[in-house]
Amino acid sequence: MRFASPARRALGALLLAMAVGAVHAKVAAPRAVTPRGPLAADEANTVEIFRKWSPSVVYITTLDKVLNLWTLDVREVPRGTGSGFVWDDQGHVVTNFHVIAGARAAQVRLSDQRSFAAELVGVSPENDLAVLRIKVPERKPEPLLLGSSRDLLVGQRVVAIGNPFGLDHTLTTGVISALDRSIDGEGGAIHHLIQTDAAINPGNSGGPLLDSAGRLIGVNTAIYSPSGASAGIGFAVPADKVNRVVPELIAYGQYRPPSMGITVLDRVSVAVIRQLGIKGALILEVAPGSPAERAGLKGSRLVRAGSIVPGDVIQSLDGKPVEGSSDLDKLLDGRNAGERVTLGVWREGATRQVTVTLAPGGR
């Protein structure tokens, strides 16, 4: 038996490896790509909404000042982040109140990565809205188109754009899950909110909720989630409320809700109206010169410690029932100064209708 020399064995191994490699190379060749064809109409619409309007969405970084105890130098450090959007061509940016609450300063970054120091214009904690202003000398982002939330329907498609977890310009889609929701905010209960299943995560707050026409229909404000991440239940301040509050923040620095000029405190009135065997919101005080005084409404009188003579009890507003101050707040929310409302009022065992013309500035 003759054995191959080491050189012959090495040559054979090399030829075998080359042959196997050629086979593998042929097998590993890239596959041909199948043409996709045009996007579906709804996909193309979503892509176009993001392309056109994401540059109008901004990234907000809030800042705080920290003192170095060794050098006594004061420097600004990041405090939190959120989203916002361009409201008009004057540089006003709308966001949530809770995004900028407690901050000493804020920076606004545009989609082209330019950053600008922001000036605080006004806040409305009770509506979780705030307005900042930046000075953009050139290439100003386009303000979002404004839609209406009055005629929204459950099931409509929506698009949310924001900066969740600090990731610039992220788009999520979903539908309107419910309308007229109420949640607790930093300034008290916020009413008439839009509920959506579009993913809203930390950092989305203050960003826009758009309809399928690319119009602003809400400002993303909160999520319901035990874990802190999106669980398919998000809330947005409706556009009609935004369009009432924001112009006042720009003009006056604060929102002046429609007023009747009365004081209602549930902790005092509940016990009294229970004794009367009725339901409603007991008026404790009527401000002098207020719309309520002009309409003839009467407050309660304290006759001795712990004993009062009850005044008028508001039981309805424009035909909708009122059982306490929260009902009254919710029904007044959405009204404007100058509007007339009709109250169903209980007084001394009889019910009457009273018309009140609302005025601006606290109840």
Description:
- The structure is a single chain.
- The protein has 363 residues and is α+β, with helices and mostly antiparallel strands.
- The protein has 3 domains: 56-133, Trypsin-like serine proteases (Thrombin, subunit H), CATH 2.40.10; 145-252, Trypsin-like serine proteases (Thrombin, subunit H); 258-360, PDZ domain (Pdz3 Domain).
- It is 21% helix and 38% strand.
- The strands form 6 sheets. A 7-stranded antiparallel sheet has the order 5-4-1-2-3-7-6. Strands 9-10-11-14-13-12 form a 6-stranded antiparallel beta barrel.
- The longest helix is centred in the N-terminal third of the chain and has 22 residues, at 6-27.
- Residues 67-72 have low confidence and may be disordered.
How many domains is the backbone divided into? 3
Shape: elongated
Unreliable residue runs: 67-72
> What does the oligomeric state look like here?
single chain
Spatially, the strands of the biggest sheet line up as 5-4-1-2-3-7-6
Mean residue pLDDT: 84
Tally of contiguous helical segments: 7
Q: How much of the residues is beta strand, in percent?
A: 35-45%
Helix content: 10-25%
